C-alpha cells in the first residue's frame, strides 16, 4: 500500500517498497478545474488547456546543478534519467507526464534530484484540480508514495519533491513549496533553498 505523503514528510524509498529499488517513475497528473459558481453560470473558464511541465534538476553535494531533464531535454547527459514527453493539456487518466530514474546509474557526485512543476502557459493553480505526483517502482508497477499537490492559490509552480541519498540509500522528501515561474530556471532559488 503506498504512503500518502504530507508536506514536509520524509520516507525511505527502499523501506516503503519492501526492498531495494533500481528504477522509479515520478509521475505527475492533473486535470483542468471545472468551472464553478459564477464562472459556471456565465460560461467562463471551461475548456481551456493548461500546460503543466514536470522537470528534474540533478544537484551535486555542493548544491550546484549538474543537469536538467525537462520537455526540451528529455534525457540526462549520463542517461540515468528520462522524461517521457510533454503533455500540453492534462487530458487523460493517470500520469500526464513521467520522469523515469535509474537510481543505479545516477552519478555518485549527484546527491539530490529535485522535481518541480510549473505552468508554462502561466495559469495559476486555481485553474487545476486532482493534481498529484507519485513514485512508482518501475519493475513491479507498484506505487510506493503519492503526494497530492495543493490546488488553489495564485501560484503557478511548485517544488514538489526531492529524492536524495543518505547513508547509502535513496529517500524522498515531499516539499510542496508553492512558488511562481514559467520554467524550471525561474524556480532555481526555491529549489536550492530546499536542498
UniProtKB/TrEMBL annotation:
Domain TerD positions: 1-181
A family per Pfam: TerD
- Database matches in InterPro entries: Stress/Tellurium_Resist, TerD
Name listed for the protein in its UniProt record: Tellurium resistance protein TerD
**From what organism does this protein derive?**
uncultured Rubrobacteraceae bacterium
Taxonomic lineage = Bacteria, Bacillati, Actinomycetota, Rubrobacteria, Rubrobacterales
Amino acid at each position: 500500500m503506498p504512503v500518502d505523503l504530507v508536506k514536509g514528510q520524509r520516507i525511505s524509498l527502499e523501506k516503503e517498497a519492501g526492498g531495494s529499488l533500481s528504477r522509479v517513475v515520478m509521475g505527475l497528473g492533473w486535470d483542468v478545474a471545472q468551472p464553478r459558481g459564477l464562472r459556471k453560470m456565465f460560461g467562463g473558464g471551461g475548456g481551456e488547456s493548461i500546460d503543466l511541465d514536470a522537470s528534474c534538476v540533478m544537484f551535486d553535494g555542493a548544491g550546484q546543478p549538474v543537469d536538467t531533464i525537462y520537455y526540451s531535454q528529455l534525457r540526462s547527459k549520463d542517461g540515468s534519467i528520462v522524461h517521457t514527453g510533454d503533455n500540453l493539456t492534462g487530458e487523460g487518466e493517470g500520469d500526464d507526464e513521467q520522469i523515469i530514474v535509474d537510481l543505479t546509474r545516477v552519478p555518485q557526485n549527484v546527491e539530490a534530484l529535485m522535481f518541480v512543476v510549473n505552468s508554462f502557459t502561466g495559469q495559476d493553480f486555481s485553474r487545476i484540480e486532482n493534481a498529484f505526483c507519485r513514485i512508482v517502482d518501475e519493475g513491479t508497477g507498484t506505487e510506493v508514495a503519492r503526494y497530492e499537490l495543493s490546488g488553489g492559490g495564485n501560484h503557478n509552480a511548485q517544488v514538489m519533491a526531492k529524492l536524495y541519498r543518505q547513508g547509502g540509500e535513496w529517500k524522498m522528501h515531499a516539499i510542496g513549496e508553492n512558488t511562481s515561474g514559467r520554467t524550471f530556471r525561474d524556480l532555481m532559488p526555491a529549489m536550492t533553498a530546499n536542498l
